[in-house]
Design a protein that fits this description.
Layout (H helix, E strand, L loop, with lengths): L1 H30 L5 H19 L5 H21 L8 H13 L2 H23 L1 H93 L4 H28 L10 H15 L3 E6 L8 H22 L3 E9 L2 E8 L15 H9 L4 E6 L5 E8 L18
Helix pairs in contact: 1-2, 2-3, 3-4, 3-5, 4-5, 4-6, 5-6, 6-7, 6-9, 8-9, 9-10
Length: 404
């Protein structure tokens, strides 16, 4: 709004100066003419010029050309009727500035050339070549001066308008970036909440499930084998302490488990040892030699997928053996978790068996999740993850047992 007011004020100021110059030239020129028909005619021409000057500011480009042409002829007539060293050629000063601001620079210079031609031609016809040319030179220089000055003003105005548009566009982009940043922040918070939910489910859910099974076993063995029952309760107590330790870490700092800081060839056996110690399962792990080293985030994903699969088998499979295999297939890391339990039911809900968390983790690495029947009975979970390009090939496996 302020820019529009300033531009309107500038336009009004320029036209005020133009009207002032027109009035001053008209008054002085008319006073130099003797009273009579000639003065009346010249006064009419001066008034016509002023009317066209006012009208040209409000007409279209085509009509502006016509107005300028009539003004050019009007000033030429005033110069011809007062062929001495008069003031009427000054009206071309105003017109030179007008055409340079209204048209392109090339077209404006052509109009100024026409003004110069009319002025020099009239003076040459009246006073001869030498005197006519010399007399017209100061006027022509004035046409060029006012024309170039007006062109510079017009260019400055165009640059100012361009800068204003760019500023407006930048402000719009800035607002969009702010909105985008706010949405990104919301998505980040949502993602962090999802991550917290997965961490709570994967760590506490896994450990508490193991503890529940241990306590059930201890309850059954209290009368038959008190010593083993005590050992089971002691193990359950350690699991609960570990669960509390992990809960503090998740809530306080959302830190990753310590197993993520070591290679999978060491982390997965540790997970299996703890799982076997807490349950009656036998886990057979195979990590192929060509499995590459992985980033921390990638290792965490693999670790959590295996952990969640073990928890699901413990809860639902009614199995005794688990076969876990990690191997490389083309540009994908494949994880298979199989068991000899009852297998998957015909209808599997997306929200059960930990599938939501496993699919979410796999999707971060362009992965897919497949549920299959195991040859010989039971079920198999197959997860394929895209291998990071920065991975390097591991050396020798730490622990392995062939798949069934």
């Amino acid at each position: 709004m302020i820019r529009g007011i300033k531009e309107q004020f500038d336009n009004q100021l320029l036209y005020f100066i133009g009207y002032f110059a027109w009035g001053a030239v008209g008054l002085l020129g008319i006073r130099l003419i003797e009273p009579g028909p000639m003065r009346t005619l010249c006064l009419g021409l001066v008034i016509l010029y002023g009317v066209l000057f006012a009208v040209s500011a409000k007409v279209s480009a085509a009509w502006k050309d016509i107005c300028c042409l009539v003004q050019t002829i009007t000033v030429a007539a005033l110069i011809a009727l007062n062929s001495g060293w008069g003031v009427f050629p000054i009206l071309y000063f105003i017109l030179s500035a007008e055409v340079m601001m209204a048209f392109s620079q090339r077209k404006g210079l052509l109009w100024i050339g026409l003004f110069a031609l009319f002025t020099a031609g009239i003076f040459v016809l009246v006073a001869g070549w030498q005197t006519g040319i010399i007399t017209s030179l100061p006027y022509i220089a004035g046409y060029l001066f006012f024309g170039i000055f007006a062109s510079a003003v017009a260019q400055a105005r165009r640059e100012r308008d361009k800068n204003s548009r760019l500023l407006q566009e930048l402000q719009n982009v800035h607002r969009k970036l702010q909105d985008y940043s706010a949405r990104i922040e919301e998505l980040t918070i949502s993602e962090e909440r999802n991550r917290l939910s997965r961490e709570m489910h994967d760590t506490l859910g896994h450990r508490l499930t193991v503890v529940a099974v241990q306590l059930e076993g201890a309850q059954r063995l209290i009368g038959e084998n008190p010593e083993k029952s005590v050992n089971i309760v002691r193990t359950a107590r350690e699991q609960i302490r570990e669960a509390l330790r992990e809960l503090r870490g998740i809530v306080a700092t959302m830190r990753e488990p310590l197993q993520v800081n070591i290679p999978l060839r060491k982390a997965l056996p540790k997970l299996i040892d703890a799982f076997e110690e807490a349950t009656d399962f036998q886990v057979h792990l195979t990590i192929e030699d060509d499995v590459p080293n992985l980033t921390k985030a990638y290792r965490l994903t693999v670790y959590r997928i295996v952990q969640e699969a073990f928890t699901n088998i413990q809860r639902h499979a009614q199995a005794q053996n688990i076969w876990a295999r990690v191997f490389l297939k083309e540009d994908h890391l494949v994880i298979t978790i199989a068991d000899d339990g009852v297998g998957f039911p015909e209808q599997i809900s997306e929200g059960t068996f930990g599938l939501v968390g496993i699919r979410e983790r796999a999707s971060h690495f362009g992965g897919t999740v497949h549920l299959e029947s195991r040859n010989g009975g039971g079920a198999q979970l197959r997860v394929e993850l895209a291998v990071p390009k920065t991975s390097e090939v591991c050396e020798t496996p730490v622990r392995g047992a062939k798949d069934d």
